[in-house]
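Hi U.,

Before I forget, here's the chain from the pilot set. I'm dumping it here mostly so it's searchable later in email.
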Amino acid sequence: MFERGWLTVARWKGAPIRVHWSAPLGAFFFGGFRFAPAVWLAFLVIILVHELGHAFLVRRFGLGLVSIDVYGMGGLCRHERGSAYQSSVIAWGGVIAQG
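Structure:
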């Protein structure tokens, strides 16, 4: 469950969704250094939804999805490389999901 600073909280299509120890610090920072649990949760959910947007298109193109990571300054969808066109569409997937 804990591995090198990461906590696996769920799996999506077989890929782990991991949260780094720095995620709560990032939420606290972007929440204005105040006690605001709703803001902290919203911060983490926005990052997760953004990364799931990338992951959805990765799977849609049939590429291998390695992990979905959330950390203090953002997130990362780790996947195998596709064509330049696929990479472009996948990059927009996060923005579209977030919208």
